[in-house]
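Is 2-acetamido-2-deoxy-beta-D-glucopyranose placement plausible here? Inputs below.
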Amino acid sequence: MMGSMELLGLFLAASGALAASSRYPRWAPGPQELLSLSPETPYGSLWPLPQSLRVSPTRFRLAPDQFQIVHGPGSSAGPNCSLLQDAFRRYYEYMFGYSKWQNQDEKKSLCETELSLLQVIITSKDSECDKFPSITSDESYHLQVSKPTSVLKADKVWGILRGLETFSQLLYEDDCGTYFVNESIISDFPRFAYRGILLDTSRHFLPLKVILTNLDAMAFNKFNVLHWHIVDDPSFPYESTTFPELNAQGAYTPNHVYTPVDVHNVIEYARLRGIRVIPEFDTPGHTQSWRKGKMCIILKGELKILYAYNGNKKREKEDW
Ligand SMILES: *[C@@H]1O[C@H](CO)[C@@H](O)[C@H](O)[C@H]1NC(C)=O
Ligand SMILES: *[C@@H]1O[C@H](CO)[C@@H](O)[C@H](O)[C@H]1NC(C)=O
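Reply from A.M.:
I modeled the complex. Tokens:
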């Protein structure tokens, strides 16, 4: 139990750092350092630890202006897979975005690149590019870091997402700002099919941006389920098109709601990171916020359960 509490703290810390600065260098105060597993954790260490990992002391230089992530030969996915295009852009930015703020000309002369290409290959016929992740999604991948071309292979896009995260964690910089990655062979698959966190947006309304930042932090830790505890007793922030009274009366204020577009954006942002969203409309208990807008939505049978739950016979009778 204690372990999972600490992990939650880690998420908040990671999101805080992200929110504080869009230039947050991924390799600096990474999850390894925050967990303080070992004071000598070397750069390029991985979290979570892959199933099989061989890292050699041979390191390759990378130059941000020459390095590319591309679709490899024989892949069943191509530039028409927007999930992967988005992931390629995102991970390039995580790895090298920070270097935009440093003197690139100086670096170029110092650094002749050795690793210039990461080829991404989907080996099964259906990449699942346009699908949603599920409990049975295949997240396994194989990553070979070699020069001049590294290869990341997976049966489905979900494995590629986890492999890109791993590749980005392998990267580190020396004191002169040169990027390196060690020669490695990694085979990986998750130990648990369900790796989730719960966000309660009823007790505390969370702005959309905070939910999205949490999804980023989850992807960095290879988590795959957002359990969205969206409504509860204190407030009803879900904007219902069928029963608009629910959020009109039940939300803290008219501004503290998630519109259908917001909900769509959360689900798509999560999908692009291999995360599925499980919404929870908590009933029959925990429905005080529902009753503000729509008393009759609570059926007679459920009222009895409410009785039992609240243990306040008198008030329930008056309300009804
Ligand atoms: C990566 O290579 C460097 C340079 O040879 C070495 O010092 C370091 O220990 C290697 N990292 C790992 C995780 O093996
Ligand atoms: C997308 O690209 C892949 C490989 O380039 C191809 O096999 C597939 O048919 C394309 N899909 C669509 C919907 O165009």
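Short version: The chain has a mean pLDDT of 83.
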